Amino acid sequence: MNFSGNVSPEHHRSKIGSLLHALASLRLTLFGLALLLACLLASLQGWLSTTVLLVGPLTLLAINLVATIASNRKMRHYPGLLSFHICLLAIVLLAAMSRMTYLKGGVEVTEGMEFTNEFTMLDAGPWHIGNLKDVRFINESFHIDYSPAVTITRTENRVRFLDASGQWRESLITEQKPLELHGYRFYVTSNKGFAPVFTWFPADGSMPQAGAIHLPRYPTNKFAQAMEWPIPGTGIVLWLQLMVDENLLKDGEVSRLQPPQSYHAVIRQGDMRKVLNPGERLVLPQGELQLTELRMWMGYLVFYDWTIPWMLASSTLAVLSLGWHFWRKFMSKPWDTTDK
Predict the structure, then answer these.
(1) C-alpha to C-alpha distance for 333 and 9, rounded to whole angstroms
(2) Residues 6+ apart with CB under 8 A from 274
(3) Is residue 338 part of a domain?
(4) With pLDDT > 90 as the criterion, what percentage of the chain qualifies?
(5) Is residue 7 in a domain?
(6) Domain tally, the chain
(7) Residues contacting 50, CB < 8 A, separation 6+
(8) Is the same domain home to 195 and 274?
(9) 93 and 211, same domain (yes or no)
(10) Which residue has the higher pLDDT, 119 or 339?
(11) Residues 91-123, buried b or exposed e (16+ Cβ, 10 A)?
């Protein structure tokens, strides 16, 4: 008997081997897949953040794959099968990193104005590594074509953007062609509407300020083009309604959505009611408000995920590796075993 308290190297290797076999077990694989499915269903119900729910099962499956590769010596004699498992490991790790670093959001930009980081909706991983402050583009103009059934057939959005060399360039965004800048993709959406532009002239003679108000989306809210609007820095809250004096989208005809030529705005504050035509002003004790023009705003879907090309490459290599493995396996045996 050995009472020295020393543990032999063989004992250490045996414990490590037992741990690897436990982590590489098929039961753990099935448990990880079941847990991943349960977390996917829970994320669809909105119970918790998708990132919080998915990273755990993906990490467990990655550990299971690493243990399988390390403990299965026979796999080393089959390079195709080994490569397939390594690719699976890469896919699982990339999926986990995707959930930790991605970004998905929505933003609205007025025609003629520059993109800002004021998102209407934002969902991003805790390790998001992108740099939105480097993204600069101007929504020059857009038009949307409608079918006789008043459904969108085509959207074309012309933008001007600052490229990596510091030069301004032009691009045309469509449903199939997003704007790609610094790893971010900007997709046009069906979310769009009218944006009355007002200029505020303070009574104290300070510098006038101009800004656009994004009314509810059109034509979804065709008969509800109204909202409350605070004039910045004044404490004044006005109720605004846009009145369009023409039928922009006609049933049974092909049409194109664009700002109307004839329109006016109804402004209310308490018992006060004022109709403003383009160029007219509303006089208030704190200053004057002028309806300058009517533009449109476009809603963009913003997406960032650096893992997509790597995920595609890993998936392609996984399929090729598995094909190579089975090709070698079947080619090692004769196809015709019939006695002659």
Answers:
(1) 42
(2) 266, 267, 268, 282
(3) no
(4) 47
(5) no
(6) 2
(7) 43, 99
(8) yes
(9) no
(10) 119
(11) bbbbbbbbbbbbbebebbbbbebebeeebeeee
